[in-house]
Fold each of these.
Amino acid sequence: MKVIVIGCNHAGTWAVKTLKAVDPSCQVVTYDRNDNISFLACGIALWVGGVVKDPKGLFYATPESLKDEGIEVHMGHDVMKIDWANKKLHVKDLKTGKEFEDNYDKLILASGSWPITPPIEGLKQEGTAYGLKKGIFFSKLYQQGQEIIEELKRPDVKKVMVVGAG
Ligand SMILES: Cc1cc2nc3c(=O)[nH]c(=O)nc-3n(C[C@H](O)[C@H](O)[C@H](O)COP(=O)(O)OP(=O)(O)OC[C@H]3O[C@@H](n4cnc5c(N)ncnc54)[C@H](O)[C@@H]3O)c2cc1C
């Protein structure tokens, strides 16, 4: 049995770990477009606020630790298409640009969510990493926490507005 898990953050990490623990003979493969897993986004506020000094404490697993458990981990890979009838995925290696197919017996979608960009004029900018204008940030990924911390070091940043108060 070969199971592919798309997305390897919290849901994906626990899916692959559980599958392997329950049935060690199962071939467990995961693809994630990001380069890190298990980032505790709940800690961004504490990290930005300086309470958490070392962001390493905001992770509980690494691609390497999953590989040690016998899981095939492909970071920096985007799943672009699913051929449901033939149980195949179309995948792109974001580093090399190489595209290829992989087949599965069972598929788990752990592809999560993404912050919405409110329909407010002037927020968007094409060609940037997350489609936002310079100086505007999402607060979800590890990389975005890093970007916010870097921005706050600029002496001309005096006032910050947070949109969304969840
Ligand atoms: C600032 C903040 C604070 C939070 N605080 C809390 C809290 O205190 N308590 C709490 O319980 N929850 C909290 N959450 C929510 C929690 O982080 C999310 O519920 C959790 O991340 C969801 O995990 P997930 O694995 O389902 O999805 P995600 O974390 O969204 O992970 C999905 C993964 O799938 C990958 N992916 C998606 N599509 C593809 C594709 N096509 N190909 C390859 N990879 C793909 C993504 O790269 C990503 O790694 C917080 C979230 C944020 C942003």
Amino acid sequence: MRFCDTHAHYDDEAFDADRTRLLGRDLRDEGVEFVVNMGASLEGAERSAELARRYEEVYAGCGIHPDEVGIFGEEGSSQALSVMARLHGLLEQPKVVCVGEIGLDYHWMVQPKEIQRKWFAAQLHLAAELNLPINVHSREAAQDTFDVIVKHHTRAGKTLSGGIIHCYSGSVEMARAYVKLGYHIGVGGVVTFKNARVLKEVVQTLPLESLVTETDCPYMAPEPVRGTRNDSRNIRYVIAKIAALREMDEEACAAALLKNAKDVYRLA
Ligand SMILES: [Zn+2]
């Protein structure tokens, strides 16, 4: 079975001991066709781009996570302009395939909501300008995330070119609305958890073409390895669950989900 991971964090120190072996060989040998490593901070984005340069099967997302948007400082300041310029530079590198992860996090609330929304919107504009898909983090902020994306969908004649709503945790109705706008729904370890009732309904009722697989590793390991350090090989458990929920063959399910991810990131 061949599959892929649309959202991972192999630059995390949890992989310091075996990153080279995993990305250089083990993942590929166990069916992982490619991984998209997400930058979350500016340093993370730089590490992400570096991993993409070093390893054939790794691509990168570069963006500033909502917890990290303090780095922009004041709007219009030289600090803000310099961070944007560095991000812009990274996003033009050949194996950098999306702006991510970006979004809103009202759980930790490291930055006030209004500041988070401002820099989320600014990075959406960057994505539109560069014609890149986005990878969206949204925690306890489902409606605001959707509203910001809708509001900035088209600006100055440029339209956002879709992307992935990572670790999707919203309603079935909202998932449908995202798909209508051209987005994909990121499904990871959570779908294997007992209490993930709504996500299971999303997976059962949305078109298969709108789903993609992800880990968010080192976090979010699926059952039956929940609680351990996660890596992209565990996506096979996620695929088994999606196939079971949709009552379809696992191989066919994996092939379809792989194609969806290639479509989003334009790797086909
Ligand atoms: Zn993540």
Amino acid sequence: MSSFAGRMKEYPNMSLDRFDRENLHARAYFLSHCHKDHMKGLKGPLLKRKLKFSLTVKLYCSFVTKELLLSNPKYAFWEDHIVALELESPTLITLIDEASGEKEELVVTLLPAGHCPGSVMFLVEGAQGTVLYTGDFRLAKGDASRIELLHSGSRVKDIKSVYLDSTFYDPRFYQIPSRETCLHAIRGLVQDWVSRSAYHTVWLNCKAAYGYEYLFTNLGDEFHTQIHVKSLDMFKKMPEILSHVTTDRATQIHACRHPKDEEFVPASRLPCGSSASDGTPLNIISIKPSTMWFGERTQRTKVIVRTGASSYRACFSFHSSYSEIKDFLSYLQPINIYPSVIPIGRTHADVTELMLMEKDIQQAQHLHKCLKIG
Ligand SMILES: [Zn+2]
């Protein structure tokens, strides 16, 4: 859960992922993705009023985020103020103080964050140095080295600060199985179940948030079927997802949700009320995507855990593990690291201490490299 207050030390005239309090004075807004904890104040009356009287204030995000946001009528008032940017295409943005006319120029680049549909990181380059705001991210080991715009030529850019998704920045979360590993295991479980009969049905017990689409599209492809969801509204303009979901209940894979009961447990009925049309009871298993982590020394154990006669938990993470974050930071070698999230059960001081340790290690490694070269 992001606790980022919205402003970066280097560029306080822009606000990212927070839209209330002092962020009401921002000259430009940036939204990394459509999760509620990154949208505080975005539909607030004060901001709405500010937009009414402003000619220059814009909200920058990816094309997918724009579609997701505008699929909710509560955000419709943003329509004329949203500027969708292409991924990995540096854009010059001028921040204007509407009272004095004073200008500040920045180059902003959206980089893929691998967290949920439309999610991006913002790379900001300007007079105060190059900074990277990760939003929420799940990057695998080595991914940073493949992002061209983090480099100038063959060298990684000099990054002054990283504002970091530190959800799992804690050695307890040393490794989280890769997305591919988790998908492979879920696919196996689904295959085993749905192949038994047409009455064998799988319910994916997903929370009401974007991020599970990766699961839907891959399972849909694999089993040549569509996944039943409550509504298609939000995917209207995303054909690659839309083609994998349906509101038709006659399918063997469901990700629908009970309209009222959050703790719904299926017996022979699904949350959508569906049961077989000829009266034969359905055989349902539920699979709950959950984050599972493993320590540094523990052997990886199963990514699927059976939690009841017909219920399972399957590993699925939207955020990078501790070792993935360490890999990311040691590759970028930023001067400053600012955590945006406090891991569960930790304090701000714990995270800061870990960050400092990380920097000591990095500096030692750097020195070692320099000595070798010298
Ligand atoms: Zn998120």
Amino acid sequence: MKFTLREVIRHQLRPLPEVSTFAVDLTGKVVIVTGANIGLGFETAKHLASMKPAKLILACRTPETGNKAAADITQATGCSTVVCWQLDLSDPESVKAFADKFEREGGGKLDILIENAAVGLFSWKRAVTGWEQTIATNHLGTAHLALRMLPFLLKAEKPRLVIVASDVHYFVTDPNEADTDGVLQRLNDQKQKGKFYAISNRYQVSKLFNVLYARALSSHLPRGTSLTVNAVNPGLCVSSLLRDLNPVVRIPLRALSRPVARSTEVGSRVFVHAAVATELDGKTGEFLQSCKVDEPSDFVISERGASASRRLWTDTLADLSEFDDQVPVGVNRYLQ
Ligand SMILES: NC(=O)c1ccc[n+]([C@@H]2O[C@H](COP(=O)([O-])OP(=O)(O)OC[C@H]3O[C@@H](n4cnc5c(N)ncnc54)[C@H](OP(=O)(O)O)[C@@H]3O)[C@@H](O)[C@H]2O)c1
């Protein structure tokens, strides 16, 4: 699908259903929301807390802000089963420690995992692993956590994995580059030439990878499983996502977008809908926006897009296996 500026505005102005219209009872269910200390993740967690989950884990980079968010959610909803666990997605050791803690203390199964955490960076930074920070967090960390939590998701009754993407995936410059040999490694080379590799295009590329990865993982799920994996777009929302952008660009951009931007509460309804709405039972490998299944970009549904998705899958597993020997073990044991 082509997503023109007109389409963007049409979506932005579309009223979204109130959470009460699709809410469910989460009694007995275990839920994780990453990056839930602020923004869309916080609002998502707050909505889910009001559905009485057995355990709601806010997976946050900074325990101080995560613990405060947990306390605020408890106060706002009366839900006393909200906890914060530390997780830095850009550090594979932290992802491993999180998964190990879940194995010890999570209660065995995981019903809902919402992978919301991400960075919006427009300058070069490297994670502890040496990977560029946007790819390390938004793609590799997200992919790693999904694979590590798979054994627990597969033990739940109708589990859901929600990977937060974005409509910016429609606007990636030169998307065919995603279907070239060694694309991940090339994105990690600061000297790489070409618009696709520019740091100004990086956030968009990472969100395209979220869509491609969700489709790839969905296609590898074991036959007969009730686990579903979908990518979601909250639409343009007022949040701190662009905090690292130069204020000379950020302030006018925010002012210009404000008339159509959603609040984080409204945007979070898309995530909550993807995680609980019964009308989505059995739907997997989809792209969701405005609380509906929608078509992703023309590139994603093209032959090149399908090839890029397969390539991303293989390359991602190879790269993650360098940091975590449980990745190939889990892929062989749980996926087809
Ligand atoms: N806002 C929008 O218009 C918009 C549009 C489309 C898609 N999205 C997507 O929606 C999601 C939430 O964005 P938002 O707007 O709510 O942004 P936000 O307010 O900046 O929240 C991002 C969250 O991710 C966390 N995070 C960043 N790096 C992390 C890491 N290495 N490990 C663990 N957590 C990390 C942040 O933690 P700290 O507070 O510790 O930094 C924060 O909790 C993102 O995936 C974004 O791409 C947003």
